Amino acid sequence: MREAGHRLIETVVSRLTTVAAGPPHATATPARLRPLLDEPLPEAPGSLAEAVDRVVRDALSHGIRFDHPRCFAFVPTTGTYPAVLADALAAAFHSVPGAWLVGAGPTQLELTTVRWLCELLGLPAGHSGLFLSGGSAANLTALAVARDDRLDGEGVPPGARLYCSSQAHPSVARAAHLVGLRRTQLVVLEPDAELRLPADRLRARLRADLAAGLRPFAVVATVGTTSTGAIDPLPELADICDEFGLWLHADGAHGAAAAITTRGREHCRGLARADSVTVDPHKWLFQPYEAGCLLLRRPELLRRSFAMDRHRLDTGYLRPARADGEEVNLDDYGPQQSRGLRALKLWLSLQTFGAEAFRRAVASGTELAEYAADHVRAIPGLELVTPASLGILTLRCVPAPGRADGPGSAGAADRLQEAVSAEVCAGGRAMVLTTDVRGRRALRLCVINPATTRGDIDETLALLAETGRRAHAAAPQRTAADGRRPGS
Ligand SMILES: Cc1ncc(COP(=O)(O)O)c(C=O)c1O
């Protein structure tokens, strides 16, 4: 055990400290990976150390390196070394913050970590919640509670309506489906010019839906849309929800973390008025997967939806594990019974680095995105599409303004962005993918890695501009690159 463990720690440390030396994305075709990994069930014992070496080489090394300083795709997380150790510790101790009887210490540790998270975000005392696998699970859990609280716990009547903007994360639509809403019951509003859920349009739609006899019950606001980092107007939306008696869920999977900084808290104004908040420590709080969190203004409502004895099934075997007095059974507060101690990652990271280091790291991501946006404005051949918001900016290559981007050539301009993304990713210096902004393709940078420097930004923007010029010049021959997926 020790020998394999020491080797493994060497591998972990080497992975964490040398990531910048390689490309931000390494991939392989199924034709290459299948012969390496799709092997028969091993009946006989083998060497643990050899298996570790092999899995690192043949499996774990093929994928996106989110912690690479020039990986700007999706929401790149960095992870911390204490968090890696935390996952191993939690596994070794079979830590289950489910029933108090099963995991008293782990449960208290999770409750404390949740309280710290609330404090970091500026949420008042009384807020609490639990750790989940990520933003999708947190959004699902929130909507289940919203449904049960606002629709009398009796399922979803046909008139029930949930509201969000088209910029909400797709996990919201999936959660709506899973809590029993039909497609038409999720009302998707077009965003305003800043890509935010428009409060006035929401109010008008609510009035019309109520007049038509429908039953609005909840609104999902996004605090940092994944595409552009847009922040829905929480204070206005909270006013509307108060007025109409609706549940307000804030999906801050990516962006709520900004509230741990002074400036970010101003951007996230109104967060405390949401009935529920999703925040993902595995995004902008630098934890490895899986670490999502749901925080509620009235956390006791979780029990109403998730208590194990809510339904009339025989729970006799659970009787010895009933919570007594001040004991808490977190398996009554969410969809999982056996649960891993995800909170330990954040707990150990906070113990090791201190909260101030987290604030500085989040602030540096915000500032770096602003630096990048300013730089885009100054570089010929690039144009800023959306300004830096919560560490995200979008831009476009415009090597010949008025030609590639001119009237009637939107398709060509879109293809140019895709070609630039594909070429830059394939080159191995940076990972930049595209998104759609107001129906047009744009390059998207999420700049939240504390290891990313201004030099990384300068290099990447210069590369994008230069690639844009070259791809534009080669436009007629570009069809081959068009079908190529970035990184392939
Ligand atoms: C705003 C938002 N909500 C939800 C999610 C889903 O989170 P997860 O991938 O952790 O399930 C994401 C993921 O990027 C997100 O950006």
List its salient traits.
488 residues, alpha/beta, Aspartate Aminotransferase, domain 1, 2 domains, 7-stranded mixed sheet, 4-stranded antiparallel sheet, binds pyridoxal-5'-phosphate
What do you see in this structure?
With 488 residues, the chain is an alpha/beta fold. It has two domains: 88-310 and 322-353, Aspartate Aminotransferase, domain 2 (3-Layer(aba) Sandwich); 357-482, Aspartate Aminotransferase, domain 1. 43% of the residues lie in helices and 14% in strands. The chain is built from 17 helices and 13 strands. It has helices at 2-17, 30-37, 48-60, 81-92, 104-121, 135-150, 170-178, 199-211, 234-244, 262-267, 281-284, 301-306, 343-353, 355-378, 410-427, 454-473, 479-482, and strands at 25-26, 63-64, 128-132, 160-165, 186-189, 215-222, 247-252, 276-279, 292-296, 382-389, 392-397, 433-437, 440-446. Strands 3-9-8-7-6-4-5 form a seven-stranded mixed beta sheet, with helices on both faces. Strands 10-11-13-12 form a four-stranded antiparallel beta sheet. Helix 14 runs parallel beside helix 16. The longest helix has 24 residues, at 355-378. It is globular, with a radius of gyration of 24 Å. The two termini are 38 Å apart. Mean pLDDT is 95; it is low at 404-408. The structure holds pyridoxal-5'-phosphate. Pyridoxal-5'-phosphate (PLP) binds at residues 75, 134-136, 139, 169, 171, 222, 226, 251, 253-254, 280, 292.
